[in-house]
Specification:
Number of helices: 9
Number of strands: 8
Number of domains: 2
Strand order of the largest sheet: 5-4-1-6-7-8
Oligomer: single chain
CATH superfamily of the largest domain: HAD superfamily/HAD-like
Radius of gyration: 17 Å
Largest sheet: 6 strands, parallel
Order of helices and strands: EEHHHHEHEHEHEHEEH
C-alpha cells in the first residue's frame, strides 16, 4: 500500500525559534568580542544551520575571525543554545491542529531541517511535537543537507523505513529557498509559508503553493494532488 508523506522544515516553518537563536548567536559573538546583532538580523540569516548563522554574524560585525576563535564561538553557541533551546520558541499558530489533522488523515510526517538533529529532536520533545513525526532528519544526519535534494530524498527514505511503509507521494513545507530548491530538485512539490525566515520574499521563492497560515495547508496539499 502506497502512503503519502509531508516533510516539514523546522525553524521558521513549524516553530518560531528566532528569539532563542538570536540570543545564542549574540552570546557567541559577544564571547568573541563582537557586538550583538539582534533578532531582526538573525531572522534574515537562519536556514543553513548554526555554524552558517554564526559565520554570517561574524561577517556583519567585522569579518571572519581566526579559525580558533570561530570554533570557540561555535562551541559557546552550542552550549548556550542547548541550555535555552525553548525559552521562547513556540509552534506557529495552527501547527498543532494541522499536524494532528494530517496524522488522523493517514499522512506520514517527517522533519527535514538543517538544524542539528540532536537540537531538533530536543526542541520537538520540549514543545510536545515529537510524537507527530516518524522521522527527524537534521543537517548532520546525512552526508548532505538542503539545498541538496539528497537531504529531501533521504528524509523520505528514512520515513518509509521507520514506518515500514512505501511512500508513494510526498511534499515539502518550508520557508526558504533551501526548502524550495531542495524539494523541487528532488522532484517533490513544495509549499512555502509566508511567515518564516527568508532573505528572499516568500512570494518570490518559486514554491508551488504559498500559505499565510497553517489552516490553509490542507487545501494546498489537496491542490497539489496529495
Amino acid at each position: 500500500m502506497m502512503h503519502k508523506a509531508i516533510l516539514f522544515d523546522l525553524d521558521g516553518t513549524l516553530v518560531d525559534t528566532a528569539p532563542d537563536l538570536a540570543a545564542a548567536t549574540d552570546y557567541a559573538l559577544q564571547s568573541a568580542g563582537r557586538p550583538a546583532i539582534g533578532l531582526d538580523a538573525v531572522r534574515q540569516m537562519v536556514g543553513d544551520g548554526a555554524r552558517a548563522l554564526l559565520e554570517r554574524g561574524f561577517q556583519v560585525t567585522g569579518g571572519m575571525p581566526s579559525q580558533d576563535i570561530f570554533e570557540a564561538a561555535v562551541a559557546a553557541l552550542y552550549v548556550y543554545y542547548e541550555d535555552h533551546l525553548a525559552d521562547t520558541s513556540r509552534p506557529f499558530p495552527g501547527v498543532v491542529t494541522s499536524l494532528a489533522n494530517l496524522a488522523e488523515n493517514g499522512y506520514a510526517l517527517a522533519v527535514c531541517t538543517n538544524k542539528l538533529e540532536r537540537f531538533s529532536r530536543e526542541l520537538l520533545q520540549r514543545l510536545g511535537l515529537d510524537g507527530f513525526f516518524g522521522a527527524v532528519v537534521g543537517g548532520d544526519t546525512l552526508s548532505v543537507r538542503k539545498p541538496d535534494p539528497g537531504h529531501v530524498r533521504g528524509t523520505v527514505e528514512k520515513l518509509g523505513e521507520k514506518l515500514g511503509k512505501q511512500i508513494g507521494w510526498a511534499a515539502m513545507v518550508g520557508d526558504s529557498a533551501y526548502d524550495v530548491n531542495a524539494a523541487q530538485a528532488a522532484g517533490l512539490p513544495c509549499i512555502a509559508v509566508s511567515f518564516g525566515y527568508t532573505r528572499i520574499p516568500a512570494r518570490e521563492l518559486g514554491a508551488d503553493r504559498l500559505i499565510d497560515h497553517f489552516a490553509e495547508l490542507p487545501d494546498a496539499i489537496a491542490e497539489l494532488g496529495g
